[in-house]
Amino acid sequence: MLDEKDIKSLPDSLVSWIDEVKQATRPDNIHWCDGSDEENAELTNLLTAQGKWI
What we know:
It holds the Pfam family PEPCK_N. The structure is a single chain. By secondary structure, this protein is mainly alpha-helical. It has one domain. 59% of the residues lie in helices and 0% in strands. It has helices at 4-8, 12-25, 37-49. The longest helix is centred in the middle third of the chain and has 14 residues, at 12-25. The radius of gyration is 14 Å and the shape is flat.
């Protein structure tokens, strides 16, 4: 998962756009996808527990 250091390395224009969308949509949380095996396992386990993964 991305940490604060990784997020700060993103282009300012991208961070600004994400902030705009966040303010407009008011999500409960934001998940920064990093494509790691750890992330895949976490999402697979979550979706399986919720009955959304076949």
